[in-house]
Here is the input.
Amino acid sequence: MSTPADTQRMEKIVSLCKRRGFIFQSSEIYGGLNGLWDYGPLGVELKRNVKNYWWRVMVHERDDVVGLDGSILMNRAVWKASGHEDTFTDPMIDCRSCKARLRADQLTEKKGAKQCPVCGGKDLTEPRAFNLMFKTFVGATEDESNVTYLRPETAQAIFVQFKNVLEVSRKKLPFGIAQIGKAFRNEINPRNFTFRSREFEQMELEYFCRPEEGMALLDYWKEERLKFYQNIGLARDRLHVMTVSDEERAFYSKGTYDIEYDFPFGRQELEGVAYRTDYDLSQHQKASGKSLEYFDEETKQRFIPHVVEPSAGVDRTVLALICDAYTEDEAPDEKGKMETRTVLRFHPRVAPVKCGVFPLLKNNAELVARAKAIVDLLRPQMFVFYDESGAIGRRYRRQDEIGTPFCVTVDFETLGEKDRQLADTVTLRERDSMKQERVKISELRELIAARIA
Ligand code: ATP
Here is the structure.
């Protein structure tokens, strides 16, 4: 349950996201569109860093995974075979009193009676199945033969390209195909900021294996994925693993874990790790009439591989990172008086801006030139922000608020005016501890690069 303090914290986070350019409402000047969001200049950096790190650990740092970038629109037959056309539904209920449209599992209960969570009304319709896929037409005629859907998950492109990828990559089981891309779901009730959106991005791995390896790989991937979230800075004690019960699990799955995170609005799913058996490939083999079997050269057996799927949401991960990083502490202002400081304590690996670079004074050509040279020095390896306006303390605060882990200040000591020993050194200031150290310019790039890797 969220407390008033949690609600207030969430409001501050949403407001910071807009004020500093992380996340805006989509089509805002026209009143927005429910469940749709745009990532601003800082949000897009954060999101890219998350996706790049996922790609790095899931594809580049492994010998057993290759990538794919499938199309969003696919032949409608894909969605028939996968079961989405018939069963990708949520039970929808209408409140006759306030006209709210609700998902059946969002109802509240009082003394055994189901209630509308918006108005408390008990006059509710029976649940009806509502298909979450966005329907569209391919080609000029809007008739049934041209219908398809915006993909509601990225996974199906991987299943239907399984044979092509297997042939070109020449991988042996177990191996995986990874993909990052947009997915669309016409959610009945989008809410909690970007948590439940109608357009979002997924990072999915389909890890194909022999049937007897499935259960062990399910546990292996659950642990790998937990490590991932810790490695991008989420606190371990806010991460939880929920074993999905037999009743709630998809009928074809032999085991599913949800990795959950304690958001200010409650504990909610970040990622599902599911052992999906051979369900998907079997369905597509049956429907397409094309073999999706694997031939084991050693045993000379042919069979449909099983699959374990860690399926994560980019937007939910980004939201968890922002919520986890948001901190208010105390720091002295220019005159030494304590004031509240808002800091996003992002792990340097995901922080949108890695380093702020400041000349002490903007009207000193030499300081400005040295600071700009440092920007050029760092830029090939990291995203840098140059700022010359306002007092240094203010500039630090602005970077703290967007989570920049390091700031470099060029001062008169850099020019060697006070102490020859300090020539060609700068102040490197760390965001969380606010500690400052004197560092040689020649060592700066490697020092920061090692900390953001
Ligand atoms: P939920 O139960 O929250 O609707 P789900 O179990 O249907 O999620 P999956 O189909 O397992 O979700 O999708 C995998 C991941 O995709 C989720 O763990 C989540 O991170 C992300 N995801 C799914 N739906 C949404 C959405 N509407 N908005 C943002 N991310 C989503």
User: Anything to note?
Assistant: The longest helix spans residues 41-60.
